């Protein structure tokens, strides 16, 4: 993955341009009305029209906005009187599962605890309905997600499979993503504070400046560090929606990004790390849910091979598809574990995946007496282990899948991460050859 600051800033610039497009007509109308009014007043007084001191009215307002999209310190910003509205009344998200995401702000704690994972299913429109950038060359220069990885600066020389994803997403899709991203960002909790003292100590002035840079609103009730964190979430998630338009944004992606922001203070680095993370996680957010079904099916297989009695009980409840662990799969245990536990699980999971890519085989592990061989699906073994730990309660007390869902959603803060990882590795040793 090439950590190219120029490409990240280009993505941010494109995000802001799309926001400007959505309000361009209204802005132009307001500026024209103001200019006409000033000209009328000055004509009546017989004076030349003079701009206020220190402000020069540009001949082309849209050009003026574009020239100031990137500030001197490299942070994308826009100074505009029109800001993005967080009105979601026009959207109809599909409700998938109740969440338990907490919030340190008492004013929105109840709302955050009942947050949901939602996938926006916007109707695809013809490509002609998309408002194109000013030039064809600029459109081609925008970095896009590719199955080959890295930054695609010249896709004409790439094979078909390696080229950036082409999408029929529209400006309306992006505007919908913007609204939901802002809502999720403002609701984000501050568990990360103890891991980044410099970000926690940000001044209110800097926090407000970062909020204005991404046109964030409705943040007045938040502490400065949460405003700054929300602004970073917005900036990176919007850029990713442009980078990977096939996926765009779905609720739950902010849960995956938040831990990365806590340990990476540079937005450019955080974006490319998140893009790398999403190369595997993006399948959790596909509209066809192929990736989710595969993972739920594997959890079901693990339970069936390890504890057939529990599996038969799940069959009786018509829950053998393991849909009750849907949220765990989508956000990778983020809402069931504390912040520190999440970092521990993810680091072990990534180490396993790296070892697998390096070609470390089961025989190598046996020779070194290191126990469980590496697997790309350690997370799924951990999810199955968390269910198996509750087997007695599920068999003896629960008579519907809804009850199991409530039990899984109530695991937050109750899991022992090291016991969970030990059980997961035991499952890998026992079942790896039969499952994978």
Automatic annotation (TrEMBL):
GO terms of molecular function: GTPase activator activity
Pfam family, one: RabGAP-TBC
Compositional bias per record (Basic and acidic residues), positions renumbered to this chain: 23-48, 108-127, 157-169
Region described as Disordered: spans on this chain: 20-169
Sequence ranges assigned to domain Rab-GAP TBC in this UniProt record: 164-353
InterPro entries assigned to the protein according to its UniProt record, in alphabetical order: Rab-GAP-TBC_dom
Domain of life from the UniProt record: Eukaryota
Stored PANTHER family: OS10G0518100 PROTEIN (PTHR22957:SF650), TBC1 DOMAIN FAMILY MEMBER GTPASE-ACTIVATING PROTEIN (PTHR22957)
UniProt name for this protein: Rab-GAP TBC domain-containing protein
Organism: Zizania palustris
